[in-house]
Amino acid sequence: MVTPRSELKEADWLRELAALRPEVRLPGYWKNLAENAARWAAELTVGPFWTEAKNRLDQWRTEYRALTEADLLLQPGLPDFVSKPETSIRDKLFRRCKDDPEYVQKALAGEGPPIPRLGDLVRTRISCRYIDGVEFLANKLFALAKEMGFHSERWREGRIEGYFAQHVIVQQDVIFRLGGQGELGKIRCEIQIASELATRMWDAAHPLYESVRGSAVAPENWQWKPDDPQFISSQLGHMIHLADGLLVQLRRAGKKGRL
Q1: How many domains does the chain have?
Q2: CA R_g for the chain
Q3: Strand partners, 175
Q4: Are 145 and 211 in contact (CB under 8 A)?
């Protein structure tokens, strides 16, 4: 009898991965992977793409201010990249393999070093003052990646849980080090861009989201329970997205009123 994917145990999942890539059986593989990711985050923070983005930031700020009479970002510069910790890497891979039987074949597939196919092994998050700044900056970063010849992706995301952000993915070359040997590989770096309000809301609700992620609870089971924390966080996320839009409308109305 075939075990349903929803009942897949971690030991069985690891055996499936090891059948494809024996490297995962090596002692310390996951710890070494996390150490590699931390090194990549540091290297890519000072790498060509992010360095050029930082060089152009003042120009982008000036252009946005000319269009809106508002500041683009909360912080003075672009944040550094950070890496996903060891337990988070394993947990996310395990969830993906449980949810999608075909993902097991993709998780560590292909030639090259055994780097999991996750878009956020290395990532950063940028908070914009206004929601139209999110669109503006995502356009700029995506265009810069294409200009510099990096393979890149970009999408706008709005989840039922109340998460609203835009993501830019930039593929980067890295060196995967294992057992004293180095091998050239590629990773997909994730840049999350959201408004100040959306970022604060997501930071506050993220522990709740982590506690229920991967569960089989259907949304309709909490959408009609106002005391359920998921109800509160998801509805608040949508309200904040609406507030972000209203703030932009109010700002534009104020600008017109001064003309």
Answers
A1: 1
A2: 21
A3: 184
A4: no
- By C-alpha distance, which of 96, 234, 85 is closest to 164? 234
- Burial class, 23, CB count within 10 angstroms (exposed 0-12 / middle 13-18 / buried 19+): middle
Distance CA 80, CA 258 (A): 38
Cβ atoms 161, 209 nearer than 8 A: yes
Report d(CA 233, CA 230) in Å as an integer. 5
Stated pTM of the model: 0.85
Q: What percent of the chain has pLDDT over 90?
A: 49
Backbone angles phi, psi at 2, to 5 degrees: -80, 130
Q: What residues make up the domain containing 48? A: 5-257
Judge contact between 135 and 43, C-beta under 8 A: no
Neighbours of 65 (CB within 10 A): 12
What does the pLDDT look like over 154-194, one tens digit per residue? 999 888 777 889 999 999 999 999 877 889 999 999 999 99
CATH of residue 122: 3.30.460.10
> Residues 19, 22, 26, 31: what is their CA dihedral angle, to the nearest 10 degrees?
-80
- Write out the DSSP string of 179-218: TTEEEEEEEEEEEEEEEHHHHHHHHHHHHHHHHHTT----
- Parallel/antiparallel/unpaired status of strands 122-128 and 181-195: parallel
Helix (H) or strand (E) holding 105: helix 103-107
Euclidean distance between CA atoms 84 and 115, whole angstroms: 13
